[in-house]
Amino acid sequence: MTYQPPCTITPLIGWLLGRICEMVGRFSMSDAGEQDLRLRRINRIRTIRGSLAIEGNTLSEEQVTAILEGKQVVAPPREIQEVRNAIEVYDRLEQWNPYREADLLAAHAIMMRGLMDSPGSYRSGGVGVMGPEAVIHVAPPHGRVPMLMRDLFDWLNRDEHHPLIAISLFHYEFEFIHPFADGNGRMGRLWQTLILARWNPVFAITPVESMVHAHQQAYYDAIAQSSKMSDSAAFVAFMLESILEVLEQAQTDQAGDQVSDQVKRLLCFMGKGFVSVPEMMSGLSLAHRPTFRKNYLHPALELGLLEMKYPDNPRHPGQRYRLTPKGRDMKRLLGEVPS
Fold first, then answer.
1. What's the CATH code, domain 260-334?
2. Which residues does residue 129 pair with via DSSP β-bridges, in sequence order?
């Protein structure tokens, strides 16, 4: 019989899956090269810091940034080495093939270089998954690890689940096997990010690891619950919730870069139905129509945040405007906007 990770697809998992797919479909990658590089750099720092912090690394984002820039940092040598290793691994993100076991071993060799004996090799002894206060899972015997990892990669290459579910299943099964003597947590999170980025490039600049760090206890609780129930549904739901949360934050950050204060004010004013230009101007206490069109209406239309009632006839005397689905999402994500 072929290996199949146990997972019940609950209504919550189905809803989260649909919501994430909807957001990914509306998420626009920046075309401005400099801005895109800046966002990638900021989120790569957040990713590295978040993943290592879960493992007890105390360096701040500022210190990680300094190490990335080649500056001297006063900190424990091991923690500095952990950051340097992680920077090198994540810099090679596009080179690793997430469906090749050999690439996993090669990435581990770099991630744990100088931190343990025989990095890049499966463990030769027993280990457990440590929570903040106690062991929450005892991993399978080391003699079974090569077979279990081979089966896991075979399953990953033939699985027919939606990629988001397959990604989370792989992450849980990886942590359940705990194939390495050290570095399992950071490698599991790295491989999930790698598979996510292969599915959709937006995840190359969204720091899922930092969101897992923000909900660290829930992360361990989900592992423990899935192990207790012999069903990874709890962990899959947790990871999908984290992915959704980081997408919402990323969209908010992108909105802050793309949407002017004037457009934010307009979105805040708009309700569910169609609204005329005079009604919008009155609601915003504006009197100069050309300024309103230039600074408020036209940018909102160009960003796809508003739509016309008569798109085939922009000068229709009864022309009115309403929020698009993207506009409604943007309004919700922006929250309170400038008055």
1. 1.10.10.10
2. 137
What is the DSSP code string of 131-190?
A: -SSSEEEEPPPGGGHHHHHHHHHHHHHH--S-HHHHHHHHHHHHHHH--SSS-HHHHHHH
- What are the angstrom distances between the C-alpha of 283 and each of 252, 260, 267? 25, 18, 11
Q: Where are the domains of the chain?
A: 11-257, 260-334
Q: Give 3-state DSSP helix, strand, coil % of the chain, rounded to 5.
A: 65, 5, 35
Q: Give residue 182's Cα distance to chain centre.
A: 24
Q: For residue 62, with 0-12 CB atoms within 10 Å meaning exposed, 13-18 middle and 19 or more buried, which class applies? A: exposed
Instruction: For 7, list phi and psi in degrees, rounded to 5.
Output: -160, 125
Taking the mean position of all CA atoms in its chain, how far away is CA 290? 41
Angle at 98 (CA atoms; ends 95, 102), nearest 5 degrees:
85
The CATH class given to the 11-257 domain equals mainly alpha
Nearest CA to 50 among 156, 209, 184, 205?
Answer: 209
In whole angstroms, what separates CA 217 from the centre of its chain?
18
pLDDT tens digits, 218-246 = 888 898 899 888 899 999 999 999 888 88
Tens of pLDDT along 114-148? 999 999 999 999 987 776 677 777 889 999 999 99
Amino acid at residue number 288: H
145: which 2 tokens? 């690890």
One-character DSSP codes across 232-293 = THHHHHHHHHHHHHHHHHHHHHHHHHHS-HHHHHHHHH--SS-B-HHHHHHHTT---HHHHI
- Mean pLDDT of all residues belonging to the chain: 86
No. of helices (H) and no. of strands (E), the chain: 16, 4
The pLDDT assigned to 337 comes to 42
Q: Give the amino acid at 132.
A: P
**Strand partners of residue 308:** 321
Per the listing, tokens 């801005």 go with 35
pLDDT reported for residue 137: 74
| pLDDT value for 1 | 47
- Measured CA angle at 54 (ends 49, 55), to 5 deg: 100
